[in-house]
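Q: Here's a chain of 168 amino acids. Please give me its 3D structure as tokens.
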Amino acid sequence: MELHLEKITYLNWHDVEDLCVNEEQRDYVADNVSSLALAGVIREAGFHVFSFGVYLGEEPIGFAMIGYDIPLDTDDDVNEKYWFTRSSYFIWRFMIDKRWQGKGYGKEALRLLIDFIRSAPCREAKYAWLCYNTANTVARNMYASAGFEEVPEVYDEEDDEMPAVLKL
């Protein structure tokens, strides 16, 4: 069976609503329904957000959300500090359901997301970026193996969010 991405629509959003990660990962990933609500609010504000189900054949096994050129703040100092965020793609949410983890689907789905980003659905960008909890070593290693490099100078210690950037 082929792994592929499908845009989330009114007709298929229920496919991803109950997907969830293992108990020990729940602090690392927002639930999919909350993420879909956030996507709607951000889209309503005029920004670009893409929500995808990750499917193995007809079976939904994961969820992903990508934003383009989402401002972090109106403060120029913040935007200068986070040099990689403007005119770039942000892998905002990414999860594989607990029943499908450990089988290589996360790596393959990440490759599909990067391919989508490289297709420049909004416009070409220099970077794709994401954040993860540093205790989530599985995610950290997977992102590093895909070429994402940590940006420790802007690490958010309070939220334990490490940004990582992929040069496109």
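Q: Can you summarize the key feature?
A: The radius of gyration is 15 Å.
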